[in-house]
Amino acid sequence: MLGIVLIGQTELATKLAENNPTVREVVQRCEIATLEPLTDGKLAGYLKHKFERAGGDIKQILDESALDAISQRLTVKSRTKAGTHEHSLLYPLAVNNLVAHAMNETVYLGFDKVDGDIIKSI
């Protein structure tokens, strides 16, 4: 028995769509799992876990305003005919990149912690 794991962006799901006859046989044997954004309070837990794994303490690196600013920064509002729609980009890769950039900027500026103003400025 052989198992293959494919990890990709949302475009992979389009290529492996059930209505695509060229990959029908493969798709019937696939299990698709979608990673949801870190909404509904999951962001703080995720970052706490990441810092603990690296031997750090989130409270020494980020203040409370930083978490709110990350959520705001990675939430996009768009307008459609039906009205305003919010789309979350709070995926781990985007969060990691933003926090790493903010940490570097904080050190460069000589501050002790990443705060909401630093997140908003980058």
Alpha carbon gap, first and last residue: 48 Å
CATH architecture of the largest domain: Orthogonal Bundle
**Mean pLDDT rating:** 90
Radius of gyration: 19 Å
Number of helices, where a helix is a run of at least 4 consecutive DSSP H or I residues: 7
Which class do the helix and strand fractions yield?
Answer: mainly alpha
Describe the sheet with the most strands. 2 strands, antiparallel
Question: Strand sequence of the main sheet, in spatial order?
Answer: 1-2
Q: Helices and strands, in N-to-C order?
A: HHHHHEEHH
**CATH third-tier fold name of the largest domain:** Helicase, Ruva Protein, domain 3
Oligomer: single chain
Would you report the number of β strands?
A: 2
- Helix proportion range: 40-55%
Short overview:
This protein is mostly helical and 122 residues long. The chain has 7 helices and 2 strands; from the N terminus they run αααααββαα. Helices cover 49% and strands 10% of the residues.
Characterization of this structure:
This protein has 122 residues and is mainly alpha-helical. The chain folds into two domains: 1-34, no CATH class; 42-121, Helicase, Ruva Protein, domain 3. Helix content is 49%, strand content 10%. It has seven helices and two strands, in the order αααααββαα. The protein has a two-stranded antiparallel sheet. A hairpin with a 2-residue loop joins strand 1 (75-80) and strand 2 (83-88). The N and C termini lie far apart (48 Å).
